[in-house]
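Holo prediction. Input below; ligand is zinc ion.
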Amino acid sequence: MVSEKKFKPKFPLTEKERKLLSLVDTNEEEITDLLQKLVQIESLNLSEFQYWDNREIFKYTKKIMEETGLKTEMFEVPFISKKKNEFYYNLIASLEGSAKGKTLQFNGHLDIVPYNKDNWDEETPPIGGVIKDGKLYGRGSIDMKAGIACQIMAMKLLKESGEKFKGKLQMWFTPDEETHGAYGSAYMTKHHLEAINADATIISEPSIWHPLASPNIGMGEKGPHWLKFTFYGVAGHGSWPKEKSNAINKATRFMVNAKRKLKIPKRKPPITKWQSLKQLIARVGFTGYREMRKFKPEKLPLDKDKRDSGILYRTTYSFNDIKAGIKTNIIPDKCDLDVDFRTMPGLKSQELFDSLVKYCSKLKYRIELPEGYTNLQHDDSRFKDKPVDVDLSILTIGEGSATNPNSEFGKVIRNAFTAVYETSPIFSYGTGFSDGGNMREAGMKDIFVFGPGGRNAHNANEYADLSTLKDITKLYLLIAYRYLNS
Ligand SMILES: [Zn+2]
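Structure of the complex:
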């Protein structure tokens, strides 16, 4: 573990706050117990199109929130099958203050990704919640039932402390972040925005970078554009090869030329490389920074790629799924290629599509876009009477987004963070999706992502590091107390 430099907080804990936070120390065991219970209820998310009944975990969560004396509301979201007994829940639990004021929202997803039991150690099974050497093992332990347990405890302790505050603290549990929120964040922002449109939101996804011990504050994320390109060719006998109309050849040309010829507009990152470096050095010092640079994750012999932090600062793409062909001696007339684009915050989907259309024009491919988007080729006479070479369809789409860390709420987080951890905060943004993307897209403000630490999210032997839970719970509690009294 890299040691972190101590830092004098600008707004240190008051005596009252110290007493409030000491409740977390006395209830530490309960956080672990709660996490264990949540891990022991299997709440799989198989896919957006495959139903898995996860009602048990929502009913359990509702029960604990009600036992704490919070008001709850369940929203039923119909599954795509429209079968009566197939639906998902969103749960909102709320705690009202003693006067009118702002609403602060906690948020977490209760779903977990599937697992292959054979890859897990026998003594730490995926749905076991086994505790060993200060770690709690299980699928979903760190992503993200640990963060949820901490937020539930922070709410509970604020209630039990009897401390006065204004406005409202609410927690929103979603069912399907792992498949981008079709029944959770995307659905609720579209159909029940009034219920979740808080003044500020904290999502408790894990955010501790190994080998650090305290979290970084996520203030934004890149936008997933999962696109399917269907290339069309002409079938024929394999003994008479076709160079230009073999659908696999067409897709190959598209892939190999992209690096040189596909020009996606650049965007200024929400936080520059230099700002990130400055924040990191403020936290760990030069020695710590040198130590961190020495840290090398295990690498497989076939892995020839260097770790490149530069990907954070540009839109990226990866060719991840390709299907074509029916038989060795038949030229394929169709080839499906799935590409995972991750766009920079500030880049519009239409701008990405424009660059793909321009690229296809360079390759002399006529491309069709999904409905609702402008296609630059439609004004280009060269492609007017040509048959379509490639169809683009959308698998998942969301634009990148970021929250201003210098907002009023950003400052509350910054000051609470330094008061709890006595080290300086690091604001950052991520390459992956969180429910925050859908919330920002719906116009919700002040959304930050930070939570406890652990490792192997989505991998075998996933665990939550129990030593990080207490401080995160304190941080949530202090932020709620200060923000709702400001
Ligand atoms: Zn997650």
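The mean pLDDT is 95. That is the main takeaway for now.
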